[in-house]
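User: Can you predict the 3D structure for this chain?
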Amino acid sequence: MGKIKVLIKPTIISETVGFGGNIDPDQLAPSIIIAQTTYLKRILGIDLYDKISSDYSAGTLTGIYQTIYTDYVIDMLAFFSCSVYLSINTSKTTNAGTFKVGVEGSTNTPLNELTILGKTYESIGISYEQNFYSFIAKNPVPEYGQNNDTQNTTNLIGWY
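Assistant: Here is the predicted structure, written as structure tokens:
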């Protein structure tokens, strides 16, 4: 598997969801890749995901594909990335072991509050996902539908 081209820059996440401070872009990148290859690929379907990804990489996004990217992909990816980031970035593992991340003189947010915050970001991402499904139903593109026969909506509470 080759290196995955992320579809949004970490600065877009800060602008879109309000993450502030000095979050290292290298710390956000794994969360963006996870959200992109799990949530976004499932939502768009493989063919549409590949089309948008290749056009984005080539700088040739136009027309309805530019609209999908600008109006839906950016927001879905930003909020789903935040949800992932909050769930996996509470501890760091190095060759010296696993430790909690914190700033001197500060208090770490309790895990239950981080979970609630992460689910809030995820639920906002789901709202954008639902808006995308409404848009694509009225504005079909040939790449959407072949590899996703059912509307596979993200399940916030984990029940299927």
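The helical segments are 10-17, 25-44, 46-58, 63-88, 111-138. Residues 111-138 form the longest helix (28 residues).
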